[in-house]
Amino acid sequence: MSADKAYFAKQSVLRKANYLWWKFVLSGLVRVITRMSVEGRENVPAKGAFVLAPVHRSYVDTPIAAGVTRRRLRFMAKDSMWNNRMLGWFVSSVGGFPVTRGTTDIEALKRCLHLLSLGEPLVIFPEGERKSGPIVQPLFEGAAYVAARGQVPIIPVGIGGSARVMPKGAKFIYPSKVRVIIGKPIHPVVNDNGRAPRSEVKRLTAVLHHELQCLFDQAQVGSR
């Protein structure tokens, strides 16, 4: 059994139960506190794999992203979370898996592709760590790479107002309006062999950046 398959084989029925707690309690609580509105739900595929790619301004972006669909979503998390045994267990139990920031984490990319091959949706924040301000920062190519290799669509998501709900350094969630806008799927173009060339990854990244900025601009207006 390969390393990525062995890793996900450890995710038991108990962890699926924990995910339901995460999905309907924690995500629901955030939705109520933020008076979250979601537009464009019809752009989220009802079945099959895809990469959900939101902007990232707050820790609450993860439960917010989980609330855009009833489907189970998997996501990458910074590997330092696993330094705390309980926190690492919890993040694993709700579908998270570790990634090393600022590097090309081959193992994490393999895990992403394995999940997509199983038909599971995946959340990747293409800006990487949390950013500040109204401008979408230069994107890492990871989201476009796994979408192209997995031949699945990327779903861009603008989240407006989450930075006020839980700013950097904050330990509590503050009631504030959040507006989420889900964009139309961006489909990778593959060659006759069913593979996407390197140029396609760059193209996807550029298109995703443009779409995220447009969605983020709209979402910020509706969250004030």
Structural account:
There is one protein chain. The chain is globular. The chain is 42% helix and 13% strand. The protein has one domain (3-222): 3-Layer(aba) Sandwich (Glycerol-3-phosphate (1)-acyltransferase), CATH 3.40.1130. Helix 1 (3-9) crosses helix 5 (106-117), helix 5 (106-117) packs across helix 6 (142-150) and helix 6 (142-150) packs across helix 8. The longest helix has 25 residues, at 198-222. It has 224 residues and is an alpha/beta fold. Strands 1-7-6-2-5-3-4 form a seven-stranded mixed β-sheet.
List the helices and strands and how they pair.
Elements lengths: L2 H7 L3 H22 L2 E3 L11 E4 L6 H6 L7 E5 L6 H9 L2 E4 L6 H12 L4 E2 L18 H9 L3 E7 L1 H4 L13 E4 L15 H25 L2
Parallel strand pairs: 1-7, 2-5, 2-6, 3-4, 3-5
Antiparallel strand pairs: 6-7
Helix pairs in contact: 1-5, 5-6, 6-8
What's the short version?
The chain has helices at 3-9, 13-34, 61-66, 85-93, 106-117, 142-150, 162-165, 198-222; strands at residues 37-39, 51-54, 74-78, 96-99, 122-123, 154-160, 179-182. It has 224 residues and is α/β, with parallel strands linked by helices. It has one domain (3-222): Glycerol-3-phosphate (1)-acyltransferase, CATH 3.40.1130.
Ends: how far apart?
A: 50 Å
**CATH architecture level-2 label:** 3-Layer(aba) Sandwich
Tertiary shape: globular
**SSE order in H/E notation?**
HHEEHEHEHEHEHEH
**Strand order across the biggest sheet?**
1-7-6-2-5-3-4
The helix count comes to 8
Helix/strand/pairing category: alpha/beta
CATH class: Alpha Beta
Radius of gyration: 17 Å
**Average predicted confidence as pLDDT:** 84
Biggest β-sheet, characterized?
Answer: 7 strands, mixed
Total domains: 1
Let me know the CATH homologous superfamily.
Answer: Glycerol-3-phosphate (1)-acyltransferase
Strand content: 5-15%
Number of strands: 7
CATH topology: Glycerol-3-phosphate (1)-acyltransferase
Fraction of residues in helix? 40-55%
